[in-house]
Structures are given as structure tokens and as C-alpha cells.
From TrEMBL:
SMART domains: FtsA. It comes from Massilia cavernae. Residues 15-183 form the SHS2 domain. This is Pilus assembly protein PilM. Coiled coil: none annotated. It comes from the Bacteria. One of its GO terms (biological process) is cell division.
Length: 359
């Protein structure tokens, strides 16, 4: 049984969450203070050159590992154990039912046997892990087990990335699982959170928007749409004749000509709201569900001026931008004003850093 570096297991030594996306590398270090209290020790990000990571695949190990080294140094951390994320598309997950009371080695044999039915690759090409969720709902003699599998080279690429940057990968999670772990913690702090709530999370990245819909903590719907903030950056490049790097910098700083808002930003916000409303309609038509109680925005675009208002207006759903660090103490080195403008982009990195609980 080859494990995806403790995909589901918790890691007791201190570790940092490292989120490698298409556009940047983000790092988060948390400290456990006891009684469920957390402190954000440090966080940092480094941009990635275009083409270094494509569709979740590390295309240029040297460029990405150099960015990881820079973000590690910039953050000031001394922790060298890392939790990394895998793109959801590169991991097959499946809930299976197995007999209760099996010994660990028997459970592994059963999981491998079941896995061979669901995985379209030879098992020796796959990194495999599983987690016992608990008793099966309608059968007291059985247990529910979550199976996860990924091509070995996908896992090895991330392990090699950590090693090239002088770090050690000890946990490999699925990015969407990490995001949900961070969101679940925030929802638990919300007074109106209750049983039966349907929550939608839209993570708007540079290239892709990842959509997850959850009911009582379980994912009931998940998909990706090819829409992200780089479309606006490309519009800025074309309109003002800037490089991609300069366009991205000036977009973030709000340092663009007067006509930017009317001619570029407003149409982009309209497109984003349209993508989100279409995704919600698709969720309604392709599932038995007919409502969403709360909508959360995350990712690098979430705090774009005007986005939250237009999404709430178009969808008519209670909407908020999620800060994964809500309710945490902040270390002296963390600047709260800066954190407020950057936090939504760190949802996955924060979820990865949360994996440092008890073994």
C-alpha cells in the first residue's frame, strides 16, 4: 500500500501549508495554542512566471522551487515540513463500504481490491491512501471508507518540488479538501450556522473558478469553470500596452487610468457575476437541490472592488468574502490591515496548515 504521504492523516510536528497555484506560491504557518485556539504566525506569497505551473502540473521545477525558496525565506519561518495540495482533477476519490472489525493489514488488502475497480490505471502506477470515516449509515456491521488515489508521478512532482527547495513534504492533501477544512472552521464560528444549511464556495483564481457546494459539511457538488482574474489582466495588457507582470501589479494597486473602471473592470465584474449565476443554475438543474443558503467568495479575485455586491445582487443569495484567519490570534509580525486585503487568497494554504493537529 503506497500512501499519498498521509493524505488523510494528521501530522503532529509543526508544518507549513504551501499552496502552489497557476499564478503564485502561498505559505501559511499556524500555531496551536490549545483549546482549539489558533494563531497565525506568518504568511507570504511569491508570484510564479507564466507557464511554470499549467493545469496543476509543475512544468518548470527550477522556477517553481526557486519561488518556494523565496517565499520560505520571505516568511521568516524555520519550519521545513510542509503540507502540499494536489489539484482535485489529479486525484480520484471514492467512498466505499467495507466490513467492520478488519485488522489494518486486512483493511489495506480490501481497499486495494476495491481500488482496482475504480482506478483506470495499474495499481503499481498509483499512490493510494484511505481514511475510515466511521460506521456505515444503514449497516451497523459495515464501515464507510474514503479512498483516494493519484498517479505516482503527480505526487512525486510535488515531493521533488519540496526537496528542491530544501523542504520535506509530509502531507499531501487535495486542494478542495484543504479549502473546505478552512471554510468549515470559519462556518463553525458563524452564529447562524446550523444543520441543513447549503453553502456554496466559489474560489476565483487566476485561470479557473472552483465551485464546491456543501450540506452539513459533506460535498454534494463540485466542478471547475475556466474563468479567472487573468482575463482582466489580459484586457489591461491589450488596452494599455503593459507587460503581464506590470498589468498585474498595477491592477492590484489600483494604479490604472480613469477609464479602467468603466471600460474594463465593470464588464469583468458583470462576466464574473454571470459565470457564478450560471454555475448556480447548473447546480439546481443537475442535482435534487433547489436552494443555496450562503455563498462564499475566496481566491485572489474575491476582494475585487464591487464583486461581492454584484454577486449578491445577481444571485439574491446571502454572500460574503471568506477570511480563513477569522477568529485566530495574530502574531506580532502579522499586519492586520494588509491581512484583510489578502486573506481570501490564502484559503487553501490555511487549510493545508491546519493539517498539523494530533497524529
Amino acid at each position: 500500500m503506497v500512501n499519498i504521504a498521509s493524505l488523510f492523516g494528521q501530522s503532529s510536528p509543526p508544518l507549513i501549508g504551501l499552496d502552489v497555484s497557476t499564478s503564485s506560491v502561498r505559505l501559511v504557518e499556524l500555531a496551536q495554542l490549545g483549546k482549539g485556539e489558533l494563531r497565525l504566525e506568518r504568511y507570504a506569497s511569491e508570484p510564479l512566471p507564466r507557464g511554470a505551473v499549467v493545469d496543476g502540473n509543475i512544468e518548470n521545477l527550477e522556477q517553481v522551487s526557486e519561488a518556494v525558496r523565496r517565499v520560505w525565506k520571505k516568511s521568516g519561518t524555520r519550519v521545513k515540513l510542509v503540507a502540499l495540495g494536489m489539484p482535485p482533477a489529479s486525484v480520484i476519490t471514492k467512498k466505499i463500504i467495507l466490513p467492520a472489525g478488519l485488522a489494518e493489514d486486512q483493511l489495506e488488502v480490501q481497499v486495494e481490491s476495491e481500488a482496482s475497480q475504480y482506478i483506470p490505471f495499474a495499481l503499481d502506477e498509483v499512490s493510494l491512501d484511505f481514511d475510515v470515516i466511521g460506521p456505515a449509515a444503514n449497516s451497523p456491521d459495515d464501515i464507510e471508507v474514503m479512498l483516494a488515489a493519484s498517479r505516482k508521478e503527480k505526487v512525486e512532482d510535488r515531493v521533488a518540488l519540496a526537496e528542491a527547495a530544501g523542504l520535506t513534504a509530509v502531507v499531501m492533501d487535495i486542494e478542495s479538501y484543504a479549502a473546505r477544512a478552512a471554510l468549515d472552521r470559519v462556518i463553525a464560528l458563524t452564529p447562524q450556522a446550523g444543520a441543513g444549511q447549503i453553502v456554496a464556495l466559489f474560489q476565483i483564481g487566476a485561470q479557473v473558478t472552483h465551485i464546491s457546494v456543501m450540506l452539513d459539511g459533506d460535498t454534494i457538488y463540485e466542478r471547475e469553470q475556466p474563468f479567472g482574474g487573468s482575463q482582466l489582466t489580459q484586457d489591461i495588457v491589450r488596452t494599455y500596452g503593459l507587460s503581464m507582470e506590470e498589468a498585474e501589479t498595477r491592477k492590484r494597486a489600483g494604479d490604472l487610468p480613469e477609464n479602467y473602471q468603466a471600460e474594463l473592470l465593470t464588464p469583468f465584474l458583470e462576466s464574473a457575476a454571470l459565470e457564478i449565476t450560471r454555475a448556480i443554475q447548473f447546480f439546481y438543474t443537475s442535482t435534487p437541490y433547489t436552494r443555496i443558503d450562503q455563498l462564499y467568495l475566496a481566491g485572489g479575485c474575491a476582494l475585487m472592488p464591487g464583486l461581492l455586491d454584484i454577486v449578491a445582487s445577481r444571485t439574491r443569495i446571502s454572500s460574503a468574502v471568506v477570511s480563513p484567519f477569522k477568529g485566530m490570534q495574530l502574531a506580532p509580525a502579522v499586519r492586520e490591515s494588509q491581512l484583510r486585503t489578502e486573506a481570501p487568497a490564502y484559503l487553501v494554504a490555511c487549510g493545508l496548515a491546519l493539517r498539523k493537529g494530533a497524529a
